[in-house]
Specification:
7 helices; about 250 residues; alpha/beta
Length: about 250
């Protein structure tokens, strides 16, 4: 599941069409334990994650994610100043706004509140790419209608539309003049479909999803320091002792 989440985050970032080699400030809606945010950090971007689950945010803190985290309900709006973010991604989250968990919950109103506040916090001309699993065409139409009412243009990109396993929906929204809609991936990438998730009986240490590096290992520490240098942060110089485990003291 970590591998699938990371691939979807990578695809969402690709659909954002951000400037090459330029760190951006991004919003991750429904960030969960920070898996998507880790990918954004690996690509040199700064990010803020918002999630409704305290347990998931605690897990993100335990994993030492680099982004800032906020506890909040996206259906009540995104609480940031206008023009705060250069882009937004969301993985498997916004379809939950179609559910009414309380009598006072009206899906259409919650969706409009979410999209209108999202439109506000984005820089004009920025994009939002929201991966989702709609239950049916009516639910997808409800979501896209409220996004349009909030001021967004864009559309839905469906990768691998003829595949039961690999089919993915990405709602690509533009907060400025309407522009081209990115092309969807198709069945020519058969390997992508067959290798989307793999199971193993082997016990392995927790690894970074993208690069197979063991967390806290020397190579992991060196890559993290190099990434922070690219982001312009102040980092201590590397030494032969960098990443070396300290012996316990009694």
């Amino acid at each position: 599941m970590i591998d699938v989440q990371t691939k979807m985050a990578g695809r969402a970032l690709e659909l954002l069409c951000l400037p090459e080699g330029q760190p951006c400030y991004l919003l991750d809606i429904g960030c969960g334990s920070g898996l998507s945010g880790d990918y954004l950090s690996d690509e040199g971007h700064y990010w803020v994650g918002i999630d409704i689950s305290p347990a998931m945010l605690d897990a993100a803190l335990d994993r030492d994610t680099e982004g800032d985290l906020l506890l909040g309900d996206m259906g009540q709006g995104i609480p940031f100043k206008p023009g705060s973010f250069d882009g937004c991604i969301s993985i498997s989250a916004i379809q939950w706004l179609c559910n009414a968990n309380k009598k006072s919950d009206v899906p259409a109103k919650r969706l409009y509140c979410f999209f209108s506040s999202l439109y506000s916090v984005l820089v004009r001309g920025a994009r939002a790419v929201l991966q989702l699993y709609p239950e049916n065409s009516e639910q997808l139409e409800l979501i896209t209608t409220q996004a349009t009412k909030a001021g967004f243009t864009g559309g839905v990109v469906v990768d691998f539309p003829n595949s039961a396993k690999a089919k993915k929906f990405y709602l690509c929204l533009f907060s400025g003049p309407s522009t081209f809609l990115p092309k969807a991936l198709n069945e020519s990438n058969d390997e992508e479909e067959t290798r989307e998730s793999e199971f193993t009986s082997e016990r392995i240490p927790y690894r970074m999803a993208r690069r197979g590096l063991v967390r806290k290992s020397r190579q992991w520490v060196l890559e993290k320091k190099a990434r922070r240098r690219r982001q312009g942060r102040e980092v201590r110089p590397d030494t032969p002792y960098t990443g070396r485990r300290r012996k316990p003291r009694f």
